[in-house]
Automatic annotation (TrEMBL):
<dbReference type="GO" id="GO:0022857">
    <property type="term" value="F:transmembrane transporter activity"/>
</dbReference>
<dbReference type="InterPro" id="IPR017871">
    <property type="entry name" value="ABC_transporter-like_CS"/>
</dbReference>
<feature type="region of interest" description="Disordered">
    <location>
        <begin position="234"/>
        <end position="253"/>
    </location>
</feature>
<dbReference type="GO" id="GO:0005886">
    <property type="term" value="C:plasma membrane"/>
</dbReference>
<keyword id="KW-0813">Transport</keyword>
<dbReference type="InterPro" id="IPR003439">
    <property type="entry name" value="ABC_transporter-like_ATP-bd"/>
</dbReference>
<feature type="domain" description="ABC transporter">
    <location>
        <begin position="18"/>
        <end position="253"/>
    </location>
</feature>
<dbReference type="GO" id="GO:0005524">
    <property type="term" value="F:ATP binding"/>
</dbReference>
<dbReference type="InterPro" id="IPR017911">
    <property type="entry name" value="MacB-like_ATP-bd"/>
</dbReference>
<keyword id="KW-0547">Nucleotide-binding</keyword>
<dbReference type="GO" id="GO:0016887">
    <property type="term" value="F:ATP hydrolysis activity"/>
</dbReference>
<dbReference type="GO" id="GO:0098796">
    <property type="term" value="C:membrane protein complex"/>
</dbReference>
<dbReference type="Pfam" id="PF00005">
    <property type="entry name" value="ABC_tran"/>
</dbReference>
<dbReference type="InterPro" id="IPR015854">
    <property type="entry name" value="ABC_transpr_LolD-like"/>
</dbReference>
<keyword id="KW-0067">ATP-binding</keyword>
<dbReference type="InterPro" id="IPR003593">
    <property type="entry name" value="AAA+_ATPase"/>
</dbReference>
<dbReference type="InterPro" id="IPR027417">
    <property type="entry name" value="P-loop_NTPase"/>
</dbReference>
Amino acid sequence: MTTPEVTVGNAAHTGPVVRLTGVTKEYPGGVVALRGVDLTIGRGELVAIVGPSGSGKSTLLHIVGTLDQPTAGSVSIAGHDAAGLGDRSLSALRAQHIGFVFQAFHLVPGMSAQANVAEGLLYSGLPRAERRRRAVETLERVGLGDRLNHRPHELSGGQKQRVAIARAVVGEPDLLLADEPTGALDSASGEAVVELIHELNKEGATIAVITHDTEIAGRLPRQVRIRDGNIVQDTAHGQGHAHALGHVPSEAR
């Protein structure tokens, strides 16, 4: 694979990692998933974005991750205006600045844990040997130094999620987006993943956890609660604020 044309800088950015202003997302048929959302996430924060199915949190994830574009409003990630970037530059932005962790792991079945994590550096321009070295270091960091050569089918669910997290953070992105990271795990494995998220945050990682689980959200230092496409509470601002909510069809998510 060739490295995509990079038109976004990777220089240190000292402002907010995420800044959404007036973000609205409307789908065909009049389904409004987000309604004028304002959200700022500062460097080093650990935030839960929590809401029930159909609340708009998945749409918010896609927009913060630059996987989708808003109908209206502005999105800035690590100082870059996402609206001003083409597809190739958006891909470069994601590769350089955002790490993703999903409920379903999305590991490559036939590849070792080390190779899966090294994939997270595929667009970094680093030599293969350096990518593999950093993969080893990161797997050791998440407690899997003894599972380097194990393929996904040889790992437990909790271990697979740790590999997925290692792949997401190996490039030291500005933002880690974790979408229901404990959703496919038993309680013990889920607890270990939550503890790992806290550890990574203590080491300086900026992390947003998208979840419907209020118990997990309550264990994080900041909770942003979303309902019917509106942020109805943000504990960064005291007790939060309620909006008059219009009806949003359940398809909006």
